[in-house]
Amino acid sequence: MAFRLGVDVGGTFTDILLINEETGETHRFKTSSTPEDQSIGVLHGIEQVCAAANIPLSYVREVLHGTTVATNAILEKKGARVGLVTTKGFRQVLQIARSFVPGGLAGWIIWPKPEPLADLEDTVEVIERVSTNGEVLTPLNEEDVRTQLRKLKKKGIEALSISLINSYAYGDHEARIAQIAAEELPGIPVSRSSVVLPELREYERTITTVANAYVQGQVSRYVGNLENKLGEAGIDAQLSILRSDGGLVSGKVAANNPVSLLLSGPAGGVTGAVWAAEQAGFSDLLTFDMGGTSTDVALVQNLTPRIGRETTVGDLTVRATSVDVRTVGAGGGSIAHVPPLTQALRVGPQSAGASPGPASYDRGGMEPTVTDANVVLGYLLPQLAGGEIGLDVEAAGTAVKTIAEAIGLDGIEGAAEGILHIVNENIYGALKLVSTQQGFDPRDFALVAFGGAGPLHANALGKLTGAWPVIIPPSPGVLCAYGDATTSLRDESARTLVQRFSELSDQLVYDILKELERTARESLLAAGLDENDLTVSYSADMRYHGQGFEIPITMDISTFLSGDGLNHLRTQFDTEHERLFAFLLDNEHEFVTARATVSGPRPEVASVTLEAGGTDPSPAKLSKHTLFVDGNYVPAVIYDRGLLKAGNVVNGPAVITEMDSTTLVLPGHAATVHPHGSLLIRPTEDSETTKD
What we know:
The chain is α+β, with helices and mostly antiparallel strands and 692 residues long.
């Protein structure tokens, strides 16, 4: 027998999903993350889930992993000391950056500009110059290169990034500098902009290359450490890492290009949500992944996540293809506090994390969190993660009482409800960023809620957004790991052109796309995939001539064979531009960057099919319960999700429990059990209707 493992490491929990490739049977396990060394928690989870499935570790053939190692290195500022090599005259490219200050009017007065990942003292210039079309204007002075690299060696740099002006058009100078660096700086990893991001715009190309060098050491060590630990445990499995765009790459490729992993974790959740929504019969959805530290949201149309060309982590924005995920510091571990100056209740972005965790975890945490508020209101029961984590109800009440006293409330229940209202509004704000602010009405979408805390808040978010039904997938707490285990290998190749349509022909664009396709295929074929199993998609970054930004447009390569490709692309761009900005320009269209993305086959995983059981859920009833909702205690029922059958309708107020998550159904709403295992929550008057 062969098994596939999906692994997702979050700020609080590490989720493991084991899939039998022959039967589709799954086993899941959730354990606390180990921030000091994520591989410890990963290996513990793998050992436990294999024990639960009663199989030896040697049966595992693939480990598919979404990781936050690169993300944490950026957020915690624990990356390598990076040296930067630039063209003479461009030493301050990172300091000049872009003239953008976040916040409102006069935000620059209080905005502390973040320090560049490569210090100015660790940046050197070399004599060379290339034109925008790749013509060598000034040859590379190799003696000067050696002199500058020796300066960096004295500085004690730990990684080297090379970003020369216009190297996207001609990368030979960067390649030669890398060869010299291997002699002058042996053992120092090198990142070249002509490899990491061969695209227009020197600042974006440089900051992306520097970020790649900054996290490369940590990612390489982690991947190597995990591979060694898997081998020592008797797991002879191929390790693949999830990229920010939702595709997989081998561990070796991931270690060489870690900047593509910055949104690795959230991308797995979106992939899993698409799978769950498709099983339930929905193609347009908002995804809502609430964990212990943060909440990630995204928008999906026609089962295809929206893809962005930028990735933002903290203060850093790099040019890397990723699922368009927005993150807000609102999770189960988000800490509630009342600043003395304003006396107004705030929730997050500070988090109790996995250690010490919320007060109710009884691990030394004292501050009130969102989890503690859910415990006080009766939404969370005293056991989590199948009994691995017990909750201290009294400690939760004591912590929340500090908030009640700070804002002058007599009862802790009112303070707990206030905490939840605020965190729900914070999440609603993030959902508006991917929907209404992008021209989409959330009422036209279903809302897929997952993560350990997502199903607890899902019903309330459905009320705020008007997105129905709210879909709670099977195993929502480990859905990110499910996404990791059910996605495919993927690679991408890009080339910058910057040519107006009058300078192009259909045949020229076709030839460029086919060349990019061949390049992108190489790594997948090297990973052992069959040529006939690969699929290709193409896209272009376009703009009106004179504009300073581009819009990504999907291309149909067959239209370029028929001679109508540029006309078709022009129409697509105008349609998207008008949707986004409500106007068109008469300027000529300009083709900036072409991309080809090659994907391997998606693994076949058998879907859950539940036994039909009518509308009555009473066989799954565990006990009666009491919840505090809208200022009052109300009687409720606790159900075991594992005992629910297809067609069962759970009327709120109710709590539905399972190993990895807890679902809250509010009064006036009902959850219908879909034959493929999802819970579909709607307002009671709509609970019997089906949205196709």
